[in-house]
Specification:
Blueprint lengths: L6 H14 L24 H5 L36 H4 L20 H15 L3 H11 L7 E2 L13 E4 L2 E4 L9 H4 L1 E2 L2 H12 L6 H7 L4 E8 L2 E8 L4 E7 L6 H13 L2
Antiparallel strand pairs: 1-4, 2-3, 5-6, 6-7
Amino acid sequence: DRCQSVSKPITSLLTMRLVDLNKISLDEATRSYVPSLPNHHTHEVGQLMRHRSGIRHYKGKYKGTNCEVPNNPAWKDSSNTQYSSATQAATLFQNDPLMLSPGSKYCYSTHAYTVLGAALEGAAKMSFPALVNRELTQRLNLPTLRPEYRNQSNPERANIYKLSNGKSVLSSRDNLSWKYPGGGLESSAMDLARLGMKVFDGSVISAQSLNTLWPGSTFSHNGAQNGAKSYWRLYFNDKTVIAVLSNQNRGNPKELTNTLGSIVKNN
């Protein structure tokens, strides 16, 4: 099933894996790894990961806030092009101005994660899909965790649905290659749960990197897109993971996660 924006914490884990391998530094300028970025991209790698880069989110989002993104008709938010790398996908928006000075404010951005993926590519000298395959799919034995290739058949992939006239009907898959790092990965719920368990046992990243990434007692992230909703929560003290993936963009995975969490923690 589609991970949607749960792809972001997975990409964050991949980033910290490269930190552990001394391949990338969170404090380094992004353009050190992605020299093809225009000069106005003065942010650092860690600012991308923490949504403090100043790179915009989708057009028209966050109206009336300090993170408001103008609805500029010249800007593009998605594409049907099959991009082979995050560096290539970043060309969709990289010429657009930053919304804020890097580091000044938290402003959630899927596009920032595409640039983060590009930085990982520059550091690892391979494409983001290849890096996911090497460091997550293969190394951690999570066979369903990978970028979604719309045109490749997958017998384990669920159909996606939308609501039409009060009924659930099949929805066509949109191309997600323009946002693989921030919203284009897919996984079974089981492999997503197994990833969380591997975070606990130190198989994914070091204890030091985990404390840098998620220092609290819990971590959670939600997601929503065409034909999908998701929620992923890790309880570090209880070593419990809850992964909820839906193949329709409705319902309330967070509420289900809260209910399941209460049951687990009270038993």
